[in-house]
Fold each of these.
Amino acid sequence: MTEPLRVVIADDQALVRAGFQMILTAKGIDVVAEAADGTDAVDAVRRTRPDVVLMDIRMPELDGLEATRRILTGAAGEPRVIMLTTFDLDHYVYAALTAGASGFLLKDVTPEHLVAAVRMVRSGDALLAPAITRRLVERFTRRDPDPPAAHRDLATLTPRELEVLRLLAEGLSNAELAGRLHLSEATVKSHVARILAKLGLRDRVQAVVLAYRAGLINPMA
């Protein structure tokens, strides 16, 4: 039997934590801890070893960005982090994505979308579907030039893998990639896995960020 999905909720607003906890628990997702600031969030993650962390950006003591960095510099088996924000183009969200977060949600997310997002990142995918994510990356990559190392890493990719990376950065799902390239979804998944491994990336979000920073996608297109 599959073990229940384990989640930590970190937000300085008690009502937000309570609401998210109620939604997730009703769907059989185990909320193993709550935290009201970043320091408590880091401690809770180390203590409970969850699959997913819902992390507010703006918290006292230690903000969600620094808490995310500390969590994601741990040992293997670290959780996926979803950032929570009230601002859809917050520069802190972009910084969190580059630090390894697997996506972000607005706090007014619907219950259905919240549950789907938590399950999605636990399975190893990333929150790339909303057009807002692309706008976020487009906006902030223009201010944040990438060091030359990232460009050198791209030289390890085959022409097909570069093509997959470009399309992935446009927000295409595996099914859409398969249709565009006339490949099976299994083959697309293999290409994506090899891209992430070669570039040393956590997930699709980081691949999108790198593609923009390396100039594979024209933000003005």
Amino acid sequence: MTLDEVKALTAGRSTLADALGIELTALTDDYLEGRMPVDGRTHQPFGLLHGGASVALAETLGSLGAMLRVDMTRQACVGLEINANHLKGVRDGWVRGRATPVHIGRSTQVWEIRITHEETGALVCLSRLTMAVIDLPPAARPAA
């Protein structure tokens, strides 16, 4: 699947990613990348990037990456666990996340998501996401 196809698949769904201004920017065989603005939508009360916004970016990228590794007509990926270490505060600009697979198994996937400040390259957040791969019941499978 190409980046444009992933964007089309996720477009117009009124998701949290849309509300936070998350944009997908790159897709290769090795990673999925996106960026998010650091502004009023993603600030905590003291004007810094909210840790929850960083986690939302991490889970968005890791979940999409996981989805691209399965047969979406027969399986789905759902989050089991996410953790995040918030390493540096950011007040403005953009942060960029890169999700890379650590483990792609039959029933689980583990993804590492590194979030950096787009301007300085400083590591802002390091996250790990574990996904369960589940079989879709026949009634939930897309029509052939």
Amino acid sequence: MTGVQFNPTTDIPSLAGKVIFVTGGTAGLGKESILQFAKHQPAHIYFSGRNSKTADAVISEVQAAQPDTQITFLQCDLASLASVSKAAKQFTSQSSRLDILLCNAGIMAHPPALTSDGYEIQFGTNHIGHALLIKLLLPTLQRTAAQPNADVRIVSNTSLGFKGHPASGIAFNDLRTKQEYPVIGHWIRYGQSKLANILYAQELARRYPSITSTSVHPGVISTGLVTDLGFWNKALVYVTNVGKMLTLEQGACNQLWAATADKEQITNGGFYEPVGVPGTHDKLSNDGKLAGELWDWTQKELEGYE
């Protein structure tokens, strides 16, 4: 790995007093991040996912290694806005502060489908579900940020796959369809959702400067996102990343760095490749006008959720 030398065991500072929320924490990068956070005495770790049995195993593993860690699972399906709203309400009923929101969960190269709310499933899961969670947790994040010596972060997982987005960047008029492109449509839809993660972090930083918002590419890791792909898609990932595949522990480093490193090292709204390296943009991923359009479109879609 290149960039910043970052060892989570030794380089994450004390997290005493901090409350952390990790989406997609039942496996992969989310679980690894939880295990690393737990080593540094946070006040409480909340994590979401769809599988309560897997969540129980994560809690057991954390408590076996760090018996004093307070950890709570919140069941949440990001492809359902009602589920996201329920999880957010459960969190705010239990915690009055939130220092780190790690938007880690996501799906990749999914066949054509819609969420329960009628959005293209990758965009609905990777962007809209997280956008609603952020919206509902922003009052808590802002209250925490207003406290003395606060350091509040929102970290959103993206991917260099964002460069596969449609020519327009985000096809706003088609987001309530399956967007069945004739060729490599699953990767185009994925790229669109990952472009949205980058743009939304930029707009969060602009609108809420007291909160440090970043997007991060973890690298290419053999997590469920890859291993659950069909044969040809899996082969494409492996062949195009020969010699570049990271271990799970390495893959979690960039998001852990963005969540905990000295704030002076981080540009609010920045996009980072592993570890802590300013990401390579294309024209649309650094387009303030498109970021504003995405923000306005998203807020209109999320009206009624308070």
Amino acid sequence: MSYPLPSTVIAVTRPGAPAPRLLDEVRRRLRLKHYSLRTEAIYVGWIRRFILANGKRHPRDMGALEVEGFLSALAVRGKVAASTQNQALSALLFLYREVLGIELPWMETMVRAKRSQHVPAVLAREEVQALLAQLEGRPWLLASLLYGTGMRLMECMRLRVKDVDFARNEITVRDGKGGKDRRTVLPKRLVEPLQREIERAHVLHETDLHAGFGVAHLPHALARKYPRAGREFGWQFVFPSAQRSIDPLDGVERRHHFDEALLSRAMKSACRRAGIVKPVSAHTLRHSFATHLLEAGYDIRTVQELLGHKDVATTQIYTHVLNRGGNGVLSPLDR
């Protein structure tokens, strides 16, 4: 089901009450709790759609009936995936609990949609090489890093200079999924290309400093604790954007990281030229990293740590990709 998404904030009113800017308060609470900008945009979008779907009534005047009706419409008429439906529910639960401060009994009984178990798409080693052969420049380096380190797309995009350790051949992933840090391997083949990329970032940073800019966005309250740290090169992105832009969090003009959409377009074009018909995204390279390590005989616990999975059960999905149950199964046709 499709609902219109106006660009302006909806002022939801109740009879006899002033017009509160509900979505502004949602944003404030999300930022107070250090949610990412991506999550902020998603949650605000779902809350806006919920309000519009119910005639712009204030959420205080609605309850379980309206929430269940909205989620049902998404599933039945919108035919959205279970993960999308659960995402909408999470946004509405945040609205009622964190913004409106309402703890209602029906919130505890909301049943999340059961997610389907899909085996991830994985490229063969030859397909990875064919894909990389069709890329060049920064897209080639980013795709190579994703495959060679197992990082998630945004972990790679947000990589800071200080977190690349050439002496130990490792990369520290900061504030990954679940707010966890971890270390992963830095492929030796990427040392020189990555050093050149960091040198280019250094030149760009010096140019920004001379122009009165060059202050990186620091996580949490580090900017207040270390006022000059944002100007240090170690805090800059390894893959900076070509242009400066206004940071939506504080309104400061600074250089953001490389646009991930550019990498997605480059990979899509490269797959077409390489003749790869599998559905391929940046995350496919992460799946391929894990699968190929297991194929090489590495312990599943080691792969779990490199990927940053909280539970080894998440990592075990790659044993299904390998078609291994226990010590492996040989088809009777191949005997």
